[in-house]
Every structure is written in structure tokens, then in C-alpha cells.
Amino acid sequence: MKFSVTLLLIAMSILAKAQSKMVQPLEILFIAASHDYGTKSIEDFSYPINKALAFKPDAVFGENLSPEDYDALDRHWNKEAIDKRLAYLTKVGYKLPKNPKAFIARQYKLLQTYPYYHQERMKLAHALFLTHDFGNASYQFYLLDKLRPAFGNEEIAAFTRILGPVDSLKNLGFRRTNEYYNIFHPIAQTLKFEKIMPMDCQKYNTPWSEAWGKTDSLYKQFETAIEADTNSADYRKYAALLNESNALQRQMNAAVRAGKGTAFFNTAEWDKLTDFGNFYGNHYLFGLKGFPENGVRDMLNYWTLRNEGMCQNLVSRARNAGAKRVVVGVGASHRELMVKLLKAMPGVTVYTLNEYGN
Questions:
Q1: Are 166 and 245 found together in one domain?
Q2: Are residues 267 and 344 in the same domain?
Q3: pLDDT by residue (tens digit) across 168-226?
Q4: Per the structure, how many domains does the chain have?
Q5: Band of residue 9 on the pLDDT scale cut at 50, 70, 90
Q6: Same domain, yes or no, for 264 and 274?
């Protein structure tokens, strides 16, 4: 009997620890951003960067797929472009080590001690890209791009040998106009983080794309029909929505011109504007004659599944890494739904960009 009680107590202790880990408190600073700020942006990126640094996170998460999640996909919306980039890097001709995983771990450890071993960083970036860790390869490209002014002839030659000509990172999808280059990579670099954590979920991309295509075709028919009768009650509701959408668009344009686009992307006004644009009016037009409500509902279903997957990846991976405070960067259209989903998860506290620190 005593032996059984001891076993029971041990089992209860293990269960309690497991449950405690499952609901380990997690604080999130949620930053919605643009995928493209343009080449002549006057955006004040110090606004999101300084808030993130003040938050003192343990990790930064981005809208990237893990290598395992990418490899598990049958199809990917950007697969053709990615295949071209992989073919480019293969053509450059630098060989991937026989045990890439072990090599990548060694490179990270080496660069912790010697961060200015630029050629070793080039090799790391190369290995990350060819093993489909595109998010962290991009982070290493960013660091190399910032270090490039200090390269000597030997380093330029090594760059060309490993990754191709120093001005050809665009062949690998590297851009100086996106949210990573301007916001999230600088945050990670300042905090001396080795990696950007991945959280994207693309399991539902194929049915989402199919639903989107069907809805788009039906919506064009709906537009033609409703605009043919400007005296109907349905048209008045439709026109009112367009007017509201246009007003919100003007607000966004004004914010962007003032260098405050990211601040606007983190507002309820943006949430409604993107709701109009991404989902053809969404539930605001439900019930109008000819409106493709079923198609929009299908889109919303797969969109919700994707965002649920992203939230689950974020929270589980943060907790597995022992992180207690994380910065999350995503395309702004995800903001409303992801914040709602995250706030409903046990042990999770969410701060949005504009409310944090105010």
C-alpha cells in the first residue's frame, strides 16, 4: 500500500509539473506591420522598435514557417519563387555540409564568441537557406548587409563564392523594404538574439486560395448587378460601406505620409479597413442580394484556421523555449483575429503596440 501511494504521489507531481508548464504565463507585445514600406518610406520605425526594446522580450517571433512545417507542405503559395531562389543558390555552387544540422549548431556557437567572423556568418546563412529555414537565413542576410561596408577584398570574394555577388541578395528574396529589415531584425540585433522564432501556419493555403478565387469571381458579378440599380436599398448599404472604406483609406494614407503607418496598422480603424479589403465587405454586406456570402464564409473559415495555427505555434514554441515575454511581428491583416485568439488562451497576456507603455 505504501509503495502504491508513493507511486501515486510521484505521478501527481509529474502531472502537476506538466500542467504548470502548459499554462506557463506568457506576455506578448503584438506588433502589426506592413509587408512593404516602399523604397522612399518616411516611417518612424523608432516607434515600434523602442516599445519592443522597453518590453524586454526573451524572443522575437515572425510570420515565417519553420523548416519542418515548410517541408511538410505539398504546396505553398510562394513555392515557385522559393524554388527559383534555391536553384540560384545551388548554381552558385558552394556545397552544403554533409550534416547541415550539426554544422548550423556549430556556426551559431562560433558566432556567439566571434560575431565578426563574417565568412562564417555567410556559411551559416547559406546552410540555413538550403535547409529551408528562410526566416533565419533572411536575418543573417540582414546582419551581413549591415556589416557589408566593413568587408575587405577577401570577404567580398568569400561572399561571391558562398552566396553570389554581394549585390544579388535580391535573388534570395532579401528586401530592404519589408517589416523584418526595418523593425524586427533591428530589434533582434539590438537584443543580440541569434534567431527569429517561426510561427506561421500554411496548412490551409490551398483551400483558402480556392475559396478566394471563387469568391472573387462571384463578387465581380455582384458588383455589376448591384451598381446597375442605384435606387435600391441594397445599393445604398453597399455605397455607404464603400464610402466608409474610402474614408478609412484616406486616414491610412495620411498616417503613412506622416511617417506613422505602423501606428495606424495597430488600430481598430485599420482592422475594419482590412476587413473590407480582404473579405469583400465581410459580414457588413451579408444579406445583400447576390452577395457571395458562402464564399466569404469559406474564406473566413480557412483564415481562422490559419490564425489559430499561428497562435498555437507561437504559444507552444515560446513556452517550450522557456520564454516569458515575446515580441510578435505579423502582417497587419492578422491583427484583429490573432489578438482575439491569443487573449482567449490560458495564461497569455497580450499588449498591442499602441496601448503598451501609454
A1: no
A2: yes
A3: 899 999 999 999 999 999 999 999 999 999 999 999 999 999 999 999 999 999 999 99
A4: 2
A5: low
A6: yes
Q: How confident is the model at residue 17 (pLDDT cuts 50, 70, 90)?
A: low
- Tell me the C-alpha distance between 287 and 118, whole Å: 60
Q: pLDDT at residue 107 above 60? A: yes
Average pLDDT, whole number, for the chain?
93
Q: Let me know: does 354 contact 267? Beta carbons within 8 Å.
A: yes
**Percentage of residues of the chain with pLDDT beyond 70:** 94
Task: Report yes or no on 1 lying in a domain.
Answer: no
pTM of the full structure: 0.91
What integer pLDDT is reported at residue 1 of this predicted model?
46
Q: Is residue 304 part of a domain?
A: yes
Tell me the pLDDT tens digit for each residue of 135-151.
999 999 999 999 999 99
Same domain assignment for residues 218 and 302: yes
Could you tell me if 208 and 335 lie in one domain? Answer: yes
User: Can you give the residue range of the structural domain that contains 283?
Assistant: 24-42+199-358
Residue 3 lies in a domain: no
The last residue of one of the domains, among 198, 231, 255, is 198
Is the residue at 305 inside a domain? yes
Same domain, 268 and 312: yes
Q: Are residues 80 and 189 in the same domain?
A: yes
